[in-house]
Design a protein that fits this description.
Elements lengths: L2 H13 L16 H4 L12 H8 L9 H4 L7 H9 L3 H11 L3 H7 L11 H4 L7 H14 L15 E5 L3 H12 L3 E5 L8 H4 L8 H13 L3 E3 L10 H7 L2 E4 L5 E2 L12 E3 H13 L5 H4 L9 E5 L3 H12 L4 E5 L11 H9 L3 E3 L2 E7 L5 E12 L5 E14 L2 E4 L3 E2 L3 H5 L26 E3 L2 H4 L4 H19 L9
Parallel strand pairs: 1-2, 1-4, 2-3, 4-15, 6-13, 7-8, 7-13, 8-9
Antiparallel strand pairs: 5-14, 10-11, 11-12
Helix pairs in contact: 3-5, 5-6, 5-9, 6-9, 7-9, 10-20, 14-16, 16-17
Keywords: 4Fe-4S, Iron, Iron-sulfur, Metal-binding, Oxidoreductase
Pfam families: Fer4_20 (PF14691), Pyr_redox_2 (PF07992)
GO molecular function: 4 iron, 4 sulfur cluster binding; glutamate synthase (NADPH) activity; metal ion binding
Length: 488
């Protein structure tokens, strides 16, 4: 090895492997009493020196488990090293090679269950590298410095793709196809693109200008959006198929799992998606929302009970706190260690004043307008086929939890698309998701693909991004080397 190369490696190593001398640190988090008052993001931004310091804690291990446990297989050790060396533009360029929306994943990915949760130095007791915060910092810095370049294909292609659904999977696919010069039209039922990133995830986790910035980039890059367009009503699925060379189904899953319990139809018992959408419209976009203004979907001054233990439930309890609820309680039928939601989100919620009632399940509801939740206390029994302990009712341990607003956050299921759209030959699984290949994302219909939650079931934004990128690659393989056409 030459002397110059050895010297370069030595200098690089001086910036890394600091996990034994530098403690894990996160960007400053606003005090709970301040963040309860608004919907702004709760974490600040790293300063350049702090980002470099924290990135320098990476051990640059030979087998990067952070990368292998990331659904996108992001080149995490490489952009951490570049950040530690102050080479931020290069760090961004490496980051965006595998991730269409790194600034979004840096904010909302459950890093504690993915990259950070599998960090080698975390396993050795030194505290994981703050991968998500550095990822967010890199891309925010790239936007500030104009390093995020507009989408400008080197040549236009004649192929056209229709994408149904403007969520993360559909937008990731649109981004990749436009960079190849493919003509892309995105159809979505809502008045703004972004799917759950826009209307489902609250602003304190993902401020909406971050999402809108990417949508503006796609529009500027030539993606056509047809919003307020409900497939099956405003346009048929066959019309979309006949208009385009390929179609991607990326609708997500919006059908709420329901409860079967006495009194479940009482006024004041609402769906999580309705509650969160109304809040996002009113708080983040300033829209007039009659159901919010009337109090139907507004927690202000109310005793709120949220049923569920996933990330959607965490979004609901923390939103209710910000709306000025009198009290907020979260009922979950298992204990803290067995809940599906992010433990970091649970901690944030507790700091903000949410009370968690573990090992509790709704048995029914009182009042024509809800006055209370009849609660059964639970215990964890024997494991089921998946290995999780099954909750069991403790007989004689029921009580009533007073409530003025009950929010059902029990998860989502797919809509019956073949019936809803009148499509013959579109095969679905026994769970109702669209049956598609998990590599090419091709469905049973020629030229029709599916990605994201409508294929895999309710999951994470990062998985939808991966699926959308893979679907775009499969389409390009089908299109082949068709001659380009002159841009209009």
């Amino acid at each position: 090895m030459g002397a110059a190369v050895q010297e370069g490696c030595a200098l690089a190593n001086q910036k890394m492997l600091k996990f034994t001398t530098v403690q894990r640190d996160m960007p400053d988090k606003r005090a709970p009493d301040l963040r309860r008052q608004d919907f702004a993001e709760i974490y600040g931004e790293f300063a350049t020196e702090k980002a470099g310091e924290q990135a320098g804690r990476c051990s640059q291990c030979g087998v990067p488990y952070c990368q292998s446990h990331c659904p996108l297989h992001n080149n995490i050790p490489d952009w951490l090293r570049l950040t530690a060396e102050g080479r931020l533009k290069e760090a961004y360029e490496i980051s965006q090679l595998t991730n269409t929306f790194p600034e979004i994943c840096g904010r909302i990915c459950p890093q504690d269950r993915l990259c950070e949760g599998n960090c080698v130095i975390e396993k050795s007791g030194h505290g994981t590298v703050t991968i998500g915060a550095v990822e967010k910092y890199i891309t925010d810095t790239a936007f500030e410095n104009g390093w995020v370049e507009p989408i400008r294909p080197s040549q236009e292609r004649p192929e056209s793709v229709g994408i149904i659904g403007a969520g993360p999977g559909g937008l990731a696919c649109a981004d990749m196809l436009r960079r190849e010069g493919v003509q892309v039209t995105v159809y979505d039922r809502y008045d703004r693109a972004g799917g759950l990133m826009t209307y489902g995830i609250p602003g304190f986790k993902l401020e909406k200008d971050v999402v809108m910035k990417r949508i503006d980039q796609l529009e500027d890059g030539g993606v056509t959006f047809r919003l307020n367009c409900n497939v099956g009503d405003d346009i048929t699925f066959e019309e979309i198929r006949n208009t385009h060379d390929a179609v991607l189904i990326a609708t997500g899953v919006y059908k709420t799992r329901d409860l079967q319990a006495p009194g479940v139809g009482a006024k004041g018992i609402v769906r999580a998606i309705d509650f969160l959408t109304a809040s996002n419209r009113a708080a983040n976009f300033g829209d007039s929302v009659p159901e919010f203004e009337s109090g139907e979907l507004n927690a202000e001054g109310k005793r709120v009970v949220v049923i569920g233990g996933g990330d959607t439930a965490m979004d609901c309890v923390r939103t209710a706190i910000r709306q000025g609820a009198k009290s907020v309680k979260c009922l979950y039928r298992r204990d803290r260690d067995n809940m599906p939601g992010s433990q970091r989100e649970v901690a944030n919620a507790e700091e903000e004043g949410v009370e968690f009632v573990w090992l509790s399940a709704p048995k029914g509801f009182t009042g024509e307008t809800v006055e209370g939740v009849m609660v059964s206390k639970m215990r964890l029994g024997q494991p089921d086929a998946t290995g999780r302990q099954v909750p069991e009712i403790i007989e004689g341990a029921e009580y009533v939890e007073e409530a003025d607003l009950v929010i059902k956050a029990l998860g989502f299921e797919p809509e019956d698309l073949p019936k809803l759209w009148g499509v013959e030959g579109l095969e679905v699984t026994r769970w109702g998701t669209v049956l598609a290949d998990f590599h090419t994302h091709e469905t049973s219909l020629p030229g029709v693909y599916a990605c994201g939650d409508i294929q895999r079931g309710a999951s994470l934004v990062v998985w939808a991004i991966r699926d959308g990128r893979e679907a775009a690659q499969a389409m390009m393989a089908q299109f082949g080397s068709t001659a380009a056409v002159a841009a209009e």
